[in-house]
Amino acid sequence: MRVVAAGDAVELFQQFLPDAELIIYPDANHGAHFQYPDRFVTYTKLFLDR
């Protein structure tokens, strides 16, 4: 397992998962689906509908 900085992670995602999207939820830490439920559901549905 390797920990990388957020900026480096974005580059790795773009390299290995070219269709991936990064969505940032301010101040959500690991609880984006709890703190931003409407936004989370919206983006999840958009992803699943592709």
Keywords, please?
mainly alpha, 3 helices, 54% helix, 50 residues
Structural overview:
With 50 residues, the chain is mainly alpha-helical. The protein has a domain at 24-50. It has helices at residues 6-16, 32-35, 37-48. It is flat.
Quick recap:
By secondary structure, the protein is mainly α. It is built from three helices and no strands.
Number of strands: 0
- List the helices and strands in order: HHH
Shape: flat
State mean pLDDT (0 to 100 scale). 85
Note the total helix count.
3
- Give the biggest beta sheet: none
Overall SS class = mainly alpha
Q: Termini, distance in Å?
A: 31 Å
Residues in β-strands, percent: under 5%
Backbone CA Rg: 13 Å
What are the segments in which pLDDT stays under 50 over at least 5 consecutive residues? Answer: none
Helix content: 40-55%
